[in-house]
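Recall that a protein's primary structure is simply its ordered list of amino acids. Everything else, from secondary elements to tertiary packing, is in principle encoded there. The following example makes that idea concrete.
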Amino acid sequence: MAGAPVKLGSILSFCVVFYAIYYRKDNFEDVRLSPVKEHLLYLENENKVGSGTHQPKVALGYGACHDLFVNATSLLNPKDLKGAPEHFNEISSKDEFLKSFTYFFKHGAAAERFMSNSALYDELVQQSLKLPDTRWAIGGNAPLMAKRFHLEGWKVLLGAKMSKKLKSYIPKDIEIVGDNGNEEVKDDIHMILEYRADEKFGEYKSPRANRYIMHNDENNPLLTSLEKLGEHLITFSPNLLVISGLQMMDNFPFKQDDKDLRAERLELVKQQILSQPVNTLAHFEMASYVDLELLLHLTTKVLPFVDSVGMNEQELSNLNSVLEYGKVMVVADSNPRVATALDQMRKTFQLIRQKNTENGSKRKLTRIHVHTLAYQAILTVKGSHWKRTKAAAAKASLTAHRYVCNSQNIALDKCKLLLDDSFSTTTDDNNNSRVFFEATKPVACWDEVLDNDEVDICVAPVLICTEAQLTAGAGDNISAAGLVLQVEK
């Protein structure tokens, strides 16, 4: 199979020489870009979403919000930073906010935090609205993924309670359930503090473009659309159920009178997944979590009962750490080696499979999708319901570029590749298998055996957008794009 791992040996010198001759870079352009783009587009064009009676259906929960996009370094002044950058599980003061933002900024790491100080949050929103580049958009994992599924040709049911104004951002063909008809809804607002690669904030410089999200939600942590979505699932009969937005529960003050409302709501999420026939695939969209109690709930009430998990490199490291050691990993390498990510994917797969068994689940994890700045990696179990893994990796890669550049057209002068000419498939010193990057066949796929199951692993390079227009919502669009070709009706 093209792109499969090979053992190091005499072939190495040939491949390196060939690479040096054919893929020599000059000062203007990486000559790999054009063939990579053409082959990714070829895979996308050869693999279409079904239509008519074969049109797949997806139901997504939970929640929505108004995203307020703000230029982070315009809103914040590095001179106000007192002391070293620091991580906080929740934000209660301006000082904590600045330290927390700078902590993730210097790592170029995505983060999402709850601000418990409502007065300060409202003040920051008002300050943001005075800046010239501030803009509004619809936000929330479920709505953004819903819009991507719809754009790619799926029939969509969205569980979210939102105002009439917020609903106007959603295509009319998407069915929205969550409120009681004429109910007046106050939308939650999320502040999206964006920054570019190599941007400076005082003495610190960001290694990559990213965003820091802050919220003071009232509706979303309670999953207020859960019951309404459940009522409509019976007649909608989806091929795929997507569980997302649970990070809004992170550090939210739930416990009252010794009653754990969060655990109760998550139990209802579990029951909603279990209510679906096993041929309705279930996907969980991971996010930025720091509340260990919530993460441990997810390992017993959500993860054992889904078929698929999607996440970025930060979320992968965190989930792996929680499953293996019971500890939160706040920040990780923002551009990990392929071998490192693949090892974490394998371990996460095995640990969730153990949870499947421990919880007597009728479902087994059969898919993991990890999206990073430099590449897409998708692992699927052979013989499972997931189809077209190679094309899905290509689709996710193309979507990453298009979304971040905010353009359907892929211009080579706005692209760069970070993937090396070859990569190890594991960090295990006893296994020296490598994949050699071929620009004319850029999506590398190979077979492995994990826990007595044969799996396919595909890695696709990302044509990284060098002029980032959007960062928040990229993961939602990429994850959805990775799913659209993998489910067939």
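The chain is about 35% helix and 20% strand. Residues 7-27 have pLDDT under 50 and may be disordered.
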